[in-house]
Amino acid sequence: MASWSEFAADEPRLADGIRFLMQQYGPGFGYLATVRADGGPRVHPVSPVITDDGLFCFVVDSPKRRDLERDGRYALHSFPPEESDDEAYVAGHARPVTDPARVARLAELGRAAPRVDWRLFEFTVDVAMLARRGEAPLVYPGEGPGRPAVQVWLDPRANELRAEVPEPLPARRVRGAHFVAA
User: CB-based contacts of 52: which residues, under 8 Å, 6+ apart?
Assistant: First the structure.
């Protein structure tokens, strides 16, 4: 399970593209998928906080927080831009942040309401994906007319995830990433 900073150090361009889409409207905005107690999916809008130190989310007392406390698996998808169908996605495990100084620093940065019953979670990155479908500044090589450029990064240490994530085809391997023209 890679931290955001480990992932960003390995694939800075991909991390920049994901961060751009997650923060395109100012504060972070995306959809968080969690795992319900019965194993089914649950989806919620959230405001992730991305810093050089990590990917975080303040979560109020809610079904999504109970999901994360019980089973930390998550997926986070960007809100769609108005001018394109570009998308960003990360998945991994959420863990509570318990260091009071770190919580206070991120609460100030993320403008978390002080009198609300929220908990701070840090999200690790096991899988990251960026799809670009237009003339945007971060489109990657390999796309054809009308075809998205897709980059997928898999944490090399997350071997158990490899069985769950199908290998995109055709792919050209570059360090820990896959560049795909779909």
Answer: 5, 8
* Between 105 and 177, the higher pLDDT residue: 105
How buried is 12 (Cβ within 10 angstroms: 0-12 exposed, 13-18 middle, 19+ buried)? exposed
Helix, strand, coil distribution of the chain in percent, nearest 5:
20, 35, 40
List residues bridging with 34 in a β-sheet: 42, 74
pLDDT of amino acid 176? 52
Strand partners, 76: 32, 90
Q: pTM to 2 decimals?
A: 0.79
Cβ-proximal residues to 127 (8 Å cutoff; 6+ apart), any chain: 89, 90, 91, 92, 152, 153, 154, 155, 158, 161, 165
What residue has token string 């942040």? 97
Whether the CB-CB separation of 46 and 75 falls below 8 Å is answered with no
Count other C-beta atoms under 10 Å from residue 30's C-beta: 24
